[in-house]
């Protein structure tokens, strides 16, 4: 199965969707909608507006949509009004929200005789909820793309988010130019809910990297190297990623203000390891990290950012951490 | 302890060494030498030449130095002849090689009344060997910088290597402009052999990342996603690093031609975990990966590239891997 | 919550149920039944007969009950006929079997106006199935005890099985004298399905011990010590248990004829770790063993005895195992 | 290589050394010595006295030997005076003590023209120290047996210790009747220092079992089962060992008064894992337990009994432990 790439690294796989001139006309050929403009949704919608797209937005509480309206988008009063749009992007908070926003009484699919061609769900919802929506809208001629996003709102704002996309290939080709505008490009990974598996794998990896980073940072510190110097070096090395870069301020200055809580990360490990069990794939490293995260929750860090893994690691090494009060960049706003 | 940064990400910490004009004169102010021009050394030396430095090179077998000579460097016949240089970079194969090249009969320090001001050892040698050299050259007024390199020859060629540097701070300041020319910049991490600890931490991290990547790639594949699509997506995400990028061809096309063997990685884990034990730092994830690498060696993959972790992982998941024969970039030659 | 002990180690907790004279009359005071006389059930029922109990047995295929009939038990033709008994022990193969045998059309509870006072379920069934039975029989005045057995048929035959028991305390006191006859004594652990949790914990421990035994046995062998000598010594030491004793023949002579398959052990780890997750208890060692067992299944040993963990461990240590063809006792028939 | 068994389980392997009548004469045929009568040595020597042996004892501080003198042993004033004995048992505190007691100025081998035939070293010393002693005494015609003991003083007193023995086979046959008197029997495992490897394996196993026990005990407790009831049940089951029995009081009543500290257990894991590395045996479970023990030390429990693993496990599960103040037997004084 060949991956289908879009975006800056588009040369890595078959199909390519650039931002070249002949695409420009195409980009304006579709009428777009956005359902759910929380922090993530607002940042993403803003990028479509900046690219000159025709965009209507709906949010349960209209106040949250206002900043986008000031940028030129058209507000609508019910989700159903988005039915006239060709492609509707969705960023809602939960599986239940997805079902009620799409299939509910005044939901997107409730308008008589009218429905978008493609829905692009960028939320993190259960495969079951997604599959149910997919099935129920199919006979209305509407396709669902699962497009879970990798990155937080700051990453989106910096133009560095990506997404895995799965669902009908023709629906993907329709939506691809707009998906490409959202960040660093997206990857088509196949039919159905496969993109959600990619997201789970991504988050397992993120947890493992965070814990390994905690281990080596504490080792470096006990050896006499400041966390700032150590992480600066690591981030400049081939091992450095946007992720290890934007977690550096937390690890250096001990800011555990949550971007993603330990409890939420545990949830993703629950799901990821359950998927691994279903597919009969042993995951020795992910499994041990799962237990370490459970320990973090048990020790009372459940509502802290998962970067508190550093704190737990230091405690078990007999090291008392203090903030280095260093001026560490999160690396998101470089032009690299 | 504040990190001291040089290079493109120099804004991350205090001192900065740019490539700006006023530095250009400085760059040409020192006479440089290079001792040991194997694959790594040759690529690194080439970068100094390209920047217009005055460079003399020595290699035990002169043939290996020839390509550099053609590029304009001055060959010398004995290591001792490099004694007239201000700064000498060293890339040798082992601790014993280091000691004999520096302290031996015709070694660098054997010239009467003459010695470089600074030696920069970019090799991977033991802290003991390094400390011995450091001590013996000190009374000759020569300082040793430990500057273990993070990256392989292809990474160097792409201009993306980095190094942690430790030793006397004034020696560092002298060598910094040239170190900066070698790649993406370097980080000063403190006195003595501290840079070697950074390298060990880096390699522990590399092993953990490689194993975690193997786990999630096999999970993705058993779920129905091609390795190519999966890794393309991951590499485009915030988790993607140069490392995960340049290992993608190996994971996709099963090319386990060694860049770094499983046995060598085990050695780094031996050293890294011994250092952790000495500093009383528990390393649960690194320790389990150590054992997994030992298993890889036990199953006969000791001389294969450590990317064979993917093979071992697939076997334990009941999955038979076949090459995807995909045209996957290693990501090193982008301008990103 | 105080444990309630019965049997030979009765002195370890409050209540004691010996085999002393004044209990003898009591033992014969109840009419007993046995539902399901597979390998485990037959061995257990045989012990009640040997102690002189009044016992009726039912098995779906009557042939399996015949050996017990020859020993003096009364066969019955439907499960319903056991309704006239005071206490009925149950050993069936699955949750569904339990439900149909008790609540089904001709099941134990189908007799009009008649039901045993106490059911003692010694099967390994789900807590859900057990709870359903418990609830449905309660209004008939019948109590259910969960009494999952720890030990295999050979252990039962040797008089060395035990069981955790949970359910109404008065029902326990009624059944205790007979439970005590089944082996080394039982332990009352509380209300409801708690005994099933004990069984899960027991089996997690069993898997961890089996893997650790594999690790150290291979280490000893690669050091030059025969498995026979090593395990003889370990079994004689304070670490030796009946379990490590009766697995010795398998580890020494590589007899992986299943007593309990790797797939079944994985199932118990699935359940045990799910319970740990529910109770928010990190289980680092059990989790890693879970993944090792998954690897064993993935490598094709799913239907072999879980002692094949030794084989997997040897392979990863580069060791080819051969049977030692030694005359090793399983330790079950000693009088210790 | 066939194990050579002696003692009660002697039927498990070839050679047997019982306590039968015809052996009695033999037992008194040798003149025995004991060097070092600390807690372990005193308990062991007492058993030889009780069996009627002719025993002389030496201890650096004579006061410690007095209780044995009152039981009929002959005190000597220097280690050298034990040279007239046929077989001398040794229980000293460290490798240095061994070397000075045997090879030192007034050591056992310092007497002119006289030396025991066999030394039996029951201490825990390094293989290097042992090998040195072995080599130096060989040309005096004296053989060394390594016989590290498995069990603590209470285990010895209860008659339940065992030992692995290695060294020259004829020396073993000479010493065997007396070794058998020390506890449950010993096992001959081969030449040289092999017995020390058995001890390391034993202690790795002990650590793994202690941690697994901590995990399941906390799981059981959070499910609603008292530690007392849970451990009573486990100890009655096939998984119960003398070890799990005699740790029960610590786990139930939280008595972490050290019998063996976490720091000492870590030391054995250091050695055991180093041996595994040398023999290229991956030890995934032992390695993770090693790190968990390191964490225990890092959290300040280094001088507590290793049973504090339970405490650490409870903390990571968010459970506050309180003593159950239960009357739990350590199981050592049963006649089982």
Q: Could you give the topology of this structure?
A:
The structure is a homotetramer of 336-residue chains.
Chain A: E1 4-5, H1 21-27, E2 31-35, H2 39-50, E3 54-58, H3 66-70, E4 74-75, E5 87-90, H4 95-103, E6 118-121, H5 127-138, E7 143-146, E8 149-150, H6 153-157, E9 162-166, H7 169-181, E10 186-190, H8 194-223, H9 227-236, H10 242-253, H11 262-278, H12 284-301, H13 309-316
Parallel strand pairs in A: 2-3, 2-5, 3-4, 5-6, 6-7, 9-10
Antiparallel strand pairs in A: 1-10, 8-9
How does this model look, in words?
Four copies of one chain form a homotetramer. Chain A has 336 residues and is of the alpha/beta class. Chain A contains 13 helices and ten strands. Chain A has a six-stranded parallel sheet, sandwiched between helices. In chain A, helix 2 links the parallel strand 2 and strand 3. The relative contact order of chain A is 0.10.
Which structural class matches the secondary elements of chain A?
Answer: alpha/beta
Give start-end ranges of low-pLDDT stretches of chain A.
7-27
Helix fraction of chain A, binned, reads: 40-55%
What fraction strand of chain A? 5-15%
What assembly state would you assign to the polypeptide chains in this entry? homotetramer
Q: How far apart are the termini of chain A?
A: 31 Å
What general form of chain A does the structure show? globular
Give the biggest beta sheet of chain A: 6 strands, parallel
Q: Cα-atom Rg of chain A, whole angstroms?
A: 21 Å
H and E string of chain A: EHEHEHEEHEHEEHEHEHHHHHH
Write down how many β-strands of chain A occur, each being a DSSP E stretch of 2 or more residues: 10
List the total number of helices of chain A: 13
Q: Output mean pLDDT of chain A.
A: 91
User: Main sheet of chain A: which strands, in order across?
Assistant: 4-3-2-5-6-7
Largest interface (CB < 8 Å) = A-B, 91 and 91 residues
């Amino acid at each position: 199965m060949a991956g289908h790439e879009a975006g800056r690294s588009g040369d890595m796989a078959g199909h390519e969707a650039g931002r070249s001139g002949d695409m420009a006309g195409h980009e304006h050929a579709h009428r777009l909608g956005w359902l759910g403009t929380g922090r993530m949704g607002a940042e993403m919608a803003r990028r479509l507006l900046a690219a000159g797209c025709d965009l209507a937005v709906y949010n349960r509480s209209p106040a949250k949509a206002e900043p986008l309206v000031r940028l030129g988008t058209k507000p609508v009063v019910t989700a159903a009004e988005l039915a006239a749009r060709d492609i509707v992007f969705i960023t809602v908070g939960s599986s239940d929200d997805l079902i009620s926003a799409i299939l509910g009484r005044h939901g997107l699919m409730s308008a008589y005789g009218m429905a978008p061609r493609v829905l692009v769900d960028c939320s993190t919802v259960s495969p079951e909820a997604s599959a149910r929506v997919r099935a129920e809208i199919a006979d209305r001629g509407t396709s669902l793309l699962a497009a879970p996003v990798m990155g937080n709102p700051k990453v989106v704002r910096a133009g560095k988010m990506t997404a895995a996309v799965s669902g009908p290939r023709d629906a993907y080709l329709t939506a691809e130019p707009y998906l490409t505008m959202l960040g660093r490009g997206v990857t088509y990974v196949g039919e159905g809910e496969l993109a959600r598996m990619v997201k789970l794998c991504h988050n397992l990896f993120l947890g493992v990297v965070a814990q390994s980073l905690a281990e080596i940072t504490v080792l470096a510190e006990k050896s006499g190297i400041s966390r700032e110097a150590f992480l600066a070096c690591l981030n400049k090395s081939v091992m450095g990623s946007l992720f290890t870069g934007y977690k550096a301020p937390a690890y250096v200055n001990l800011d555990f203000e949550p971007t993603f809580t330990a409890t939420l990360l545990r949830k993703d490990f629950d799901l990821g390891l359950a998927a691994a069990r279903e597919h009969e794939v042993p995951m020795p490293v992910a499994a041990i990290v799962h237990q370490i995260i459970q320990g973090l929750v048990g020790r009372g860090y459940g509502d802290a950012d998962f970067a508190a893994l550093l704190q737990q690691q230091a405690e078990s090494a007999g090291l008392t951490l203090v903030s280095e009060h260093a001026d560490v960049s999160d690396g998101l706003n470089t032009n690299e």
